[in-house]
Amino acid sequence: MNALSQPRRPLAESSARRDAAHFINGEFTQGTTGKFYDNFCPVDGSRIGSVPEGGKAEIDAAVKAARAAMEGPWGQMTLNERAALLNKVAAEINRRFDEFLEAECLDTGKPMSLASHIDIPRGAANFTMFIDVAKTVSSECFPMDTPDGKGALNYGLRRPRGVIAVISPWNLPLLLMTWKVGPALALGNTVVVKPSEATPLTATLLGEVMNTCGVPKGVYNVVHGFGGNSAGEFLTQHPGVNGITFTGSTRSGEMLMREAARGVRPVSLELGGKNPGIVFADADMDKAIEGTMRSAFANCGQVCLGTERVYVQRPIFDEFVARLKAGAEGLKLGRPEDPTTGIGPLVSDTHRKKVLSYYAKAVEQGATVVTGGGIPDMPGDLAGGAWIQPTIWTGAADDAAIVTEEIFGPCCHIRPFDTEEEVIKLANGTPYGLAAAVWTENLSRAHRVASKLEVGICWVNSWFLRDLRTAFGGAKASGIGREGGVHSLEFYTEMTNVCVKL
Ligand code: NAD
C-alpha cells in the first residue's frame, strides 16, 4: 500500500481520466440507448469523459446475466472457491491502488490523503471481511420434544437471496458500493450495481478487476444512469431482482421502497442523517475539537455520519466555538494530490447550489455566521471547481432549517445546553436517527446518554471508528435494517428452517 507522503502525479495527467462504460455479463459496453452525459471533475470543472445512460434494455440484460450466473458456475461454486476468487479481487484492488485512488479523486475531488486512508483500503477490506463472515458463521439448532418421546431437530439453512440490486451514492463511491457487493458475493448472490451518476469511475474499474481475477461473467454487473425514470428506477422495477440494497437520501429511499413493494422484495436502506455531537463540560477538549473537526469537515462534510449539530455544555461553549472556528479557518483547501490539502471541493456544482441555499437560509433565519458562509476565492483553474467555505453557525432556533435538515456540506451549528436531559431531548429532536458522537470523561454519563439516543450508531470520545463486524444502519428516517458482520446475513440470505422428525 502507498505511503501517504509520497509525491503524487497531478490528476490532470491521470490515465483514470476516461469514458465510463456499463459492465454487463463480463463485457464493457456503451449500451443501446444512444444517451450519454458528461462527467466533470469538481476540482476544476474539467470534463473527465462521457458516461452512457442505461435504459430498460441494459437493466434487463444485466439482471438476466446475474440470474444466469446464479444458476450457472457461480451458484455451483463451493464457498472455498468463491472465497479464493474474492480474496483475489481484494488483492487486485490493492495492486491497482493508484488507479482506484486517482479515479475516485477525479470523480469526487476528495484529498488523496483521505481516499488512500479510507476509501480504497476499505473497498478491498469489504471483500475479505465478508469472506470471513461467510466462512465462520454458524446456524441455529433447536432440538424439540414431541409427544412420541422421540423428538425432532430444527436447524436453520441459509441460501443466497438471488440477484441483488445495489444502488449507491457519490460521497464514498467505492467504499459504499463494495460495502454491499462484498457481502452479497461472499454469501453467494450476484449483483447489478447502479452507481451514482456523479461518480461512475471506480465501479467501472472494478469490472476490469473481476475479469482479471476470473470471477464468472454475470456475477458483477454495472449499469450507469440516473435515479428516477432512468437506470436506478428501472433496476428497482425489474421483477428479476430479489432484493434491493440502497445507500442514499431518505427521499430516494422512500421512492425506492414503493417500487420494492411490487413482488414484496426486501430492502436494506442506509439513508440520510442530521447527526448530533454532544460535548459535555468534562470532555477532553483537545479530543472533542479534533473529533468534531473531522466529523463536521472531513470529505467536505459529505459523510452520512457527519456532525451538523453540535451541542456544547455552557461552561465550555465559548472556548469550544473559538477553537472550532480556528480549526475551520486553518483547513487548507487544495488539490487532491497535494498532501497538505485538508479539504476538497463539494462533489458538483449542483450540490454546491444546494449547500449554498442553506448558507443563505441560515442568515435569513437569524443565525450568526461564526466563520465561512460562502464561496472562497480559488486561484487559476481551481476557480472552475465546486469549492465552498467550511462554515460554522451559532444562534439558530431549534426548528431552523440548518438545525433540522440534512445539508451534506462542510458546516455545523453549535448550540449551548445546560443539562443531560435537555441535550438528549435536543439530540433526538429530528426525524433522523443515524449516528451521534458523545464527548465526556464521565463513564456513567457516557453509557447513560448512549442508551437514550435514538440512533443506529453512537460513538463515545471518537467518530468514524468502524469495526466492520458491528451492526451498521440508521434508526427512524435514517434507514431500515442493519448490515455489517453477521447482521448482513439477514438481508443477503434467505433462511429455511428444516424440521426433522426423529
Ligand atoms: P440520492 O438519494 O440522490 O442518490 C443515491 C443513489 O440513488 C444514486 O445512485 C441515484 O441515482 C439513485 N436514485 C435516486 N433516485 C432513485 C430512484 N427513484 N430509484 C432508484 N434509484 C434512485 O443520494 P446522493 O445525493 O447520491 O447521496 C447523498 C445521500 O446519501 C445523503 O442523504 C446521505 O446522508 C446519504 N448517505 C447515507 C449513508 C448511510 O450509510 N446511511 C451513507 C452515505 C450517504
Automatic annotation (TrEMBL):
Record keywords, A-Z: NAD, Oxidoreductase
All copies of domain Aldehyde dehydrogenase, residue ranges: 30-498
InterPro entries, sorted: Ald_DH/histidinol_DH, Ald_DH_C, Ald_DH_CS_CYS, Ald_DH_CS_GLU, Ald_DH_N, Aldehyde_DH_dom, OHmuconic_semiald_DH
Catalytic residues in the record: E270
Transferase as UniProt keyword: no
Entry's Gene Ontology molecular function annotations: aminomuconate-semialdehyde dehydrogenase activity
Superkingdom of the source species: Bacteria
A Pfam family that the UniProt record links to this protein: Aldedh
EC numbers on record: 1.2.1.32, 1.2.1.85
Gene3D superfamilies: Aldehyde Dehydrogenase, Chain A, domain 1 (3.40.605.10), Aldehyde Dehydrogenase, Chain A, domain 2 (3.40.309.10)
Entry similarity comment: Belongs to the aldehyde dehydrogenase family.
PANTHER family in UniProt: 2-AMINOMUCONIC SEMIALDEHYDE DEHYDROGENASE (PTHR43720)
Protein name: Aminomuconate-semialdehyde/2-hydroxymuconate-6-semialdehyde dehydrogenase
Organism, scientific name: Acidocella aromatica
